[in-house]
Amino acid sequence: MEDNNKEINKNIETFLKEIYSENPEDMIIKINQIDGMTNQNYQIIYNNKNDEKKSKEVLYRKYGNILDLSEHDKEIYIMKYLSNKKEGPNVLYISPNYRIVEFVNDSKIIPLELRYEPKILDNVIDILCKYTFISNVYKYSIDEVIKINLYHKNENNDEYKFPSILDILEKLFIKAEKNYNKFNEKFNEYFSKNKIDEKIKIMKSKYDIYIKDYKNKFLSLFPKNGFFILCHNDCQRWNFLFKNLDTKLLIIDHEYACLGLPGLDLCNYFNENSFYFYDNGNYEFKKEEINFNYYYKQYQKYCHSFIQLNKIWLNKDENKEFLNLIQTKDYYLNLHSITNIFWFLFCVINLDFEGDIIKKSEHYFEYGYDRLCYSELAQKKN
Fold first, then answer.
1. How far is Cα 82 from Cα 60, in angstroms, rounded to an integer?
2. Distance in angstroms (rounded) separating the CA atoms of residues 17 and 10
3. 23-67 pLDDT, tens per residue?
4. Which of 102, 132, 166 is the last residue before a domain boundary?
């Protein structure tokens, strides 16, 4: 930790010297670690020794290893776009291993008890609809060999070329399949000599079924033709910041942003809200709180806003079929299934054995199983 703070301190001194022409010897720098699952985040408070009352704050993010899915150029592109629209913090300094951005003072994540508050949901819908404009809209089709054909719909040729959710899916699946084979060997070796708990047996059986036929299960839920828009793809409530109910939300953490289906982010937001994570690393899956009908009413609000913002191209005759599709309940329920089994692969990549038991950190084995159960709940409603 001490070596880490020395590195951060040195980088902050470089930032102050290059950006503000400050002499590092004249500065007092305080480092507070905040959180971070795939990255490490720190609140940096600094001030001149001669003026201790005028302290300033920045957010320092040290990049972690997030499965080769994160393109930091992509994040910076999105952050600068949102910053220009006053919907995200300013990017202050960029390095290959870290970045420094404006610290949003007095902000907080969406509390669990406010996650469905009308003003909060209206704000979530508004920012997810506007997220579309960061990228071009693409028309796609999927042929028999799961190939995606992308067609520009706009004239903006200098945009960042975002990957699609199916591009990321392919990367995820290769890693997941490889890791599952390793996990399987350890699992079978241990439980060939020891009794298998019935619950673990049921969970492992579901893993086997999905890994064996994963792509077909995923693509059976996916429209064969339609449009890709830019999706945040990780709409947990703690990736939204707000100061009070009367202020608009800011959306952060764009590591997994990619081209995906309209409405996918909103369903992802509802899915994530059914999992309660605690400071001790444990979590609960609140299956009994899932309310697909209520979520659908909010999804209809999303559709209305999304269509109004994109009516120029959506209302063209050749696009009417897809326009009608995205407003159906079947399509909406498939989005719930898609986002859950997509993130199931993330759990598979993190599966491991520790000694003679399934690794407990982050509860990936049980969490992956619960994501599959959530996906199947949506399909039963379909």
1. 18
2. 11
3. 888 888 888 887 655 567 888 888 888 776 778 888 888 876 655
4. 102
pTM over 0.85: yes
Report pLDDT for 370.
95
pLDDT higher than threshold 60 for residue 318:
yes
Can you tell me which residue has the tokens 């969970």?
Answer: 203
Last residue of a domain, one of 52, 77, 102: 102
More reliable by pLDDT, 302 or 363: 302
- The two structure tokens encoding residue 351: 């599966």
Length of the chain: 382
Structure tokens belonging to residue 79 = 């952050």
Q: For the segment 193-220, what is each residue's pLDDT rounded down to a tens digit?
A: 888 888 888 999 999 999 999 999 999 9
Domain, as residue range, for 97: 2-102
How many distinct structural domains can be found in the chain? 2
Copy the structure tokens of residue 11.
């980088």
Co-location of 271 and 330 in the same domain: yes
Using alpha carbons, list the distances in angstroms from residue 362 to 269, 352, 357.
20, 11, 14
The CATH number of whichever domain residue 64 belongs to comes to 3.30.200
- pLDDT value of position 380: 92
